[in-house]
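Lecture notes, structural biology module. Today: joint structure prediction for complexes of two components.
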Amino acid sequence: MWSNFVDNLSSFASSGSNWVFFVFALMAISGAIFMISYTKVVHMVVSLALTFISLAGLYILLEAEFVAIVQVLIYAGAISILMIFGIMLTKHRAEEVESQRPLHNILLIIGSVALLGVLFYAIQTANFPAAAPFDAGVDNTAEIGKLLFNAHVIPFELMSVLLTVALIGAIVIAKREEE
Amino acid sequence: MGGVVAPYLMLGAILFCIGIYGALSKKNAVIVLLSIELMLNAVNLNLVAFSKLGVHPSITGQVFSLFNIAVAAAEVSVGIAILIALFRNSGKTEVQEMDSMKH
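The predicted structure, tokenised, for the full assembly:
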């Protein structure tokens, strides 16, 4: 398993797109780690926005341009701004204090590292057959649109109903009640 | 040979584990929601990676990740609305204090 990993690593360093992957992956992981380690809540949101943007870069590397644009619009744009609004409308000077439950935290670290270990073992030992070449089509967005309105039209319409219901529900919940 | 898709899966696994740690250890409810978004993003990365590098590459994976993003947006809007309503009624933003329905 380990030699397999080293083999992967050496073949990984030989190609240019792999270096792009490496830079974006490093940015994504460091954004997530900063999110964990910062104490001010606003800083956490901004560092996670870095993760979202670098994931959009990875989607472009995977020839999924439309998903990358949607990622920037929805995650780095809408969700980050919504989170910042959420912070500003509640305790906007909030700081994450040190936990009073050290046992809880230690068990949590052990648990998530163990989960990572299991996933690492599974990924490194799994045998993925060689992929057929990917045909993204000339226009990625047009292909996605054709698929959305032919094969996946019912989930697409359900999704529009879900979004309407969720947003109206959000307005009703957050509305100030008259006394 | 898994050398092509495995790095993406590993990155997804790392982000998912960081997200699960943040969701269970942080106290501020906004950060808990944000960690859940991070976990959803890790799943999206896997979907898009398999849509290009899987055994049967097809664009369906990207469509599924778009649905996933839409559901995440709906979830976070409702979550933030609940947080604002709760803060207005009781002044709480920390998940440990949200126990008024505890038996």
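Point to remember: Residues 60-90 of chain B form the longest helix (31 residues).
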